[in-house]
Write a structure and sequence with these properties.
The complex is a heterodimer of chains A (661) and B (186).
Chain A (H helix, E strand, L loop, with lengths): L1 H28 L3 H30 L6 H6 L9 H5 L3 H22 L8 H21 L29 H11 L1 H13 L6 H31 L9 H26 L3 H22 L16 H21 L1 H4 L11 H33 L7 H21 L10 H24 L5 H30 L4 H11 L1 H25 L2 E7 L4 E4 L2 E12 L4 E11 L4 E11 L4 E5 L1 E4 L3 E10 L5 E9 L1 H19 L8 H13 L1
Antiparallel strand pairs in A: 1-9, 2-3, 3-4, 4-5, 5-6, 7-8, 8-9
Helix pairs in contact in A: 1-2, 1-6, 2-5, 5-6, 5-7, 6-8, 7-9, 8-9, 8-11, 9-10, 9-20, 10-11, 10-14, 11-12, 14-15, 15-17, 16-17, 17-18, 17-19, 18-19, 19-20
Chain B lengths: L1 H29 L8 H9 L18 H15 L4 H12 L14 H28 L3 H31 L14
Helix pairs in contact in B: 2-3
The chains are: A alpha+beta (661), B mainly alpha (186).
């Protein structure tokens, strides 16, 4: 019953979304506002119907309805009900349903909240968005239906993948999927504006808002993935340049470029063509990511959603590319005629270079992902392109990007002079120099981390200089410091929110630099009572306890860690063996401080009672996880709607800039 | 006025020399070997360069399967036997093929993977430079000379007012920190 209902709902939503897509484009073309309206309501209805279908699947999980193939494959009776949420997207079919749900909800929200002045282009944007939704729902209905039934009802299901039983898994996959599919929105708004030939300047407003939301989601998804890998995969790292990680990183980078260059179009009316190209690339890369994830040609540890549907997504990617190129070239004329660049030393120019570097990283990454295929095609030899390649090639570009993050915001729009730049760099540069000398004095002598740290200091110095200066000026007018600071931030939320996000990126970079250049690692086999020395840490293995459950055997290895400053603590490393999956899951014990993480993971208990441990000292990793909340805060500040802003400031600014420059 | 500029140029020279000094100290300090490399570090370094043949895209340093453990063992033993990094890597390449390396060698066809990114980026930077020059030529020229004249003439008279304007704007919420300095501009 539940299966028929679910399948019926999916079919209904397919018809609805097809109607919404075709109706809005026809209605807009024929100027039939009734048809446009009814298509919009159909769009809203799609999200409701998909929502009911999702509830239906959740209910099937809760009711342990193993007649459904998907439920039987991704849950069992022993599974805690809280994991239903994870099981929902643990496989290909379910994650498609999840993607369809978030996509349709986002479309509904964006359509309902869109400002009236965009009404000329909205039907066309809706057409593009609902076409994408139709594709995903269609794949579900015809190729990967989550409501497919088994010929017989098994007594118990197979259970959920042990690697997914981690708090990070409650947020990481859904947020990442939302981020990837969310690329549809900015893309559709650009396409809508182009097809209609209207709102060419305005689409970046709504495109930027949704772009930022998606940017934050995808970023948080990536960071949570890193956290998951760090705590559970048990090798002490957080990022391995795995093809799937890359597939999510690439669109994020291009979207980062877009949220920057969208500001230029908003402020200066430039880069119109460029912005359209950027959302196109990010959407294409997002589809490429989904393709790689669903049975792409490259091996990866992320095989949860794997299927043999890769070709369908590749075909859709091709269609969307052809479509967007066609629109781009047919509408080339409306994009032309933007304003000229006035100086190479200006905010605009720095945004261009920023875009270049971000896209550079994205394409280097893409090149690394596809090179094994290229190599196999031309020479027949299979090669692996892994971490060493990306670190060596992308590392320097990232450093350049962070450097630009320190310089760019100090440049003024239109035209800046070297003299003012030098003046605004004086204090941050001085602080950087002092800190580099301090690092040298502490014995840090390798050049790469020094350069990387220096660049980070420069950015932080620049940001704080701006904050402190602004706060002081406001303080002189009688506000106390806290109030002065808050009113400074509130005076230009997009700008100061952006600074907060920049700060988050630097904090992240801090952790990456610290942990990749200065980590120490030691593998050791310890018998109970045995001790080992690791720099300032001494570890004593105390013993093991085990706990048997129907689906797993858990091992708890307790160690006593003491530091030579006298402090000590007991830490327990967790490991479980799942016989059904023939899989071992580990969870590291981490003593985390802002200075460094002491990280322990155990891989195996030998027959004589000795345990194989891996110990790591990872400096500054703590800061990486701090970057997440800071980035969210910054995005919220940047996006916080402004209600009424007097027109005075912008007028005043124009007068000052016109007279002053 | 003349004396003032002399002091300023002397200050600049001192400043420049100070920078030079500091940088040479930094470069000198960096030429030291950072850490005494222990055999553990060396083994880990090599482990990170080898892919575990049975687990997709995990290095033997990351992978937890038996084969990876054995390969790590081999690396350690070979290092103790005094073999070099190249020899050890070659040993695994002979057995499992070139795909066992985490990154392709910088030779033969695989050289492409290393060369394309820097060449492409350099090309893109050049292209962007000429594009920007071109965009610049399109406009923004004519008002430049005028600006210089105006600013020279009005500088002394208008500066206090501009400064005032800038401060007011800052209080109201400026989008642009540079306007703060508008008055001091050349």
């Amino acid at each position: 019953m539940m299966a028929q209902l679910g399948s019926g709902l999916l079919l209904f939503s397919l018809i609805l979304s097809l109607y919404a897509a075709l109706g809005s484009v026809l209605g807009a073309y024929k100027n039939n506002s009734k048809l446009v309206d009814s298509s919009r309501y159909a769009t809203y209805l799609v999200s409701v119907v998909i929502g009911i279908a999702t509830i239906n699947l959740v209910w099937a999980f809760v009711a342990r309805d193993f007649s459904l193939e998907y439920v039987a494959a991704h849950s069992n009776r022993a599974m805690d009900h809280i994991y239903t949420w994870v099981a929902l997207y643990a496989g290909n079919e379910g994650s498609l349903l999840f993607i369809a749900l978030v996509l349709s909800v986002m479309i509904t929200l964006s359509m309902a909240l869109a400002p009236v002045r965009l009404k000329e282009m909205l039907p066309y944007a809706n057409f593009v968005m609902m076409s994408v939704a139709t594709f995903f729902i269609g794949v579900m209905v015809f190729l990967a239906n989550p409501f497919d039934t088994l010929p017989f009802t098994p007594l118990d299901g197979q259970g959920i993948n042990p690697l997914l039983r981690h708090p990070g898994m409650f947020i990481h996959p859904p947020v990442l999927m939302t981020g990837l599919i969310g690329m549809t929105l900015p893309f559709s708004f650009a396409m809508g504006a182009l097809i209609s030939g209207k709102n060419i300047e305005d689409w970046v407003d709504i495109g930027r808002v949704w772009g930022l939301i998606i940017w934050a989601m995808l970023g948080i998804g990536l960071l949570l993935g890193a956290w998951w890998a760090y705590t559970i995969l048990g090798w002490g790292g957080y990022w391995a340049w795995d093809p799937i990680e890359n597939a999510a990183l690439m669109p994020w980078l291009v979207l980062t470029a877009f949220v920057h260059s969208a500001i230029v179009q908003k402020r200066r009316g430039m880069f119109r063509m460029w912005n359209v190209a950027l959302v196109n690339i990010s959407f294409t890369l997002a589809l490429f990511g989904i393709f790689i994830n669903r049975g792409g040609p490259v091996p990866s540890v992320h095989s949860f959603g794997a299927s043999n549907l890769g070709w369908v997504f590749l075909a859709f990617l091709g269609v969307s590319l052809v479509f967007s190129f066609l629109v781009f070239f047919l509408r080339y004329d409306v994009l032309k005629g933007s304003r000229p660049l006035e100086s190479m030393l200006s905010r605009e120019a720095s945004f261009l270079i920023n875009n270049l570097l971000l896209i550079g990283i994205a394409f280097v990454t893409l090149w690394g992902v596809i090179f094994p295929l290229v190599s196999e095609l031309f020479t027949g030899a299979t090669v692996t392109v892994g971490e060493p390649f990306y670190n060596q090639v992308n590392g320097p570009i990232f450093v350049g990007l962070i450097f630009l993050m320190g310089i760019g915001p100090l440049l003024s729009w239109r035209r800046s002079s070297l003299r003012t730049l030098r003046r605004s760099l004086f204090i941050p540069g001085g602080i950087t120099l002092c800190l580099v000398i301090v690092l040298l004095a502490f014995g840090m002598h390798s050049i790469y981390p020094l350069i990387a740290f220096a660049v980070c200091f420069l950015v932080v110095g620049g940001i704080f200089q701006e904050w402190i200066r602004g706060t002081f000026i406001r303080h002189q007018r009688g506000d106390n410091y806290v109030k002065a600071f808050i009113s400074l931030i509130a005076s230009n939320r997009p700008r100061y929110g952006g600074y907060i996000v920049h700060l988050a990126i630097v904090v992240l970079a801090f952790g990456v630099i610290g942990s990749s250049f200065f980590n120490t690692q030691k593998d050791a086999v310890l018998a109970p009572g045995e001790k080992i020395n690791l720099g300032k840490y001494t570890v004593e293995y105390l013993g093991e306890s085990t706990k048997k459950s129907p689906d797993r055997t858990e091992y708890f290895n307790t160690v006593e860690v003491s530091v030579n400053d006298g402090s000590s603590r007991q830490m327990t490393v967790w490991r479980a063996f799942y016989p059904d999956f023939r899989m071992v899951a580990t969870r590291a014990a981490i003593w985390s401080t802002p200075v460094e993480d002491f990280y322990i993971v155990s891989t195996e208990t030998l027959s004589d009672g000795r345990v194989i441990f891996r110990f790591l000292v990872n400096p500054l990793v703590w800061w990486m996880w701090l970057a997440g909340p800071i980035a969210i805060l910054g995005t919220v500040v940047a996006l916080w709607p402004k209600y009424s802003r007097p027109p005075m400031p912008s007028k005043g600014r124009t007068i000052a800039t016109e007279a002053g420059i | 006025m003349h004396i003032h500029s002399k002091i300023r140029s002397r200050f600049r020279i001192t400043f420049f020399i100070a920078w030079l000094l500091v940088f040479s100290i930094i470069l000198y300090a960096c030429s030291f070997e950072d850490r005494v490399s222990s055999s553990d570090d060396e083994a880990q370094h090599i482990n990170k360069l080898l892919i575990c043949p049975i687990c997709p895209s995990e290095t033997i340093d990351q992978a937890q399967v038996q084969l990876a453990v054995q390969m790590r063992d081999i690396v350690t033993r070979k290092l103790q036997a005094g073999e070099s990094e190249e020899q050890i890597l070659q040993f695994f390449v002979d057995r499992y093929g070139e795909s066992v390396l985490a990154a392709p060698p910088k030779s033969g066809f695989s050289l492409l993977v290393w060369v394309v990114p820097p060449v492409g980026l350099l090309g893109a930077i050049l292209l962007l430079y000429f594009l920007m020059k071109n965009m610049q030529r399109l406009g923004g020229r004519e008002d430049m000379s005028q600006n210089i004249k105006t600013s020279k003439m009005l500088k002394n008279q208008i500066n206090p007012y501009l400064r005032r304007v800038d401060q007011e704007i800052d209080l109201l919420g400026v989008e642009n920190p540079e306007t703060f300095h508008a008055a001091d501009r050349e």
